[in-house]
Amino acid sequence: MSLMQNLPTPASVDRSDDTATFDARELIRNGVKAEIVLDGQTYTLRITRAGKLILTK
User: Fold this and answer.
1) pLDDT in tens, 17-47
2) What b/e string do you get for 20-55 counting C-beta neighbours within 10 Å, with b at 16 or more?
3) CATH code: domain of residue 13
4) Among 13, 34, 47, 48, which one is least packed by beta carbons within 10 Å?
């Protein structure tokens, strides 16, 4: 099964510069964290109790 099948689709796309917009809470469906892979490197995206986003390697 491909990882791409589980990814949310962008909420909108700004056609002026092709920037995809995602709702962070949709990415982090379990309310805790999401893992994002780029070129074989895994990053963790978290929402803090204060509502801030933290991206760590």
Assistant:
1) 788 888 999 889 888 899 999 999 999 999 9
2) eeeeeeeeeeeeeebeeeeeeeeeeeebeeeeeeee
3) 2.10.70.10
4) 48
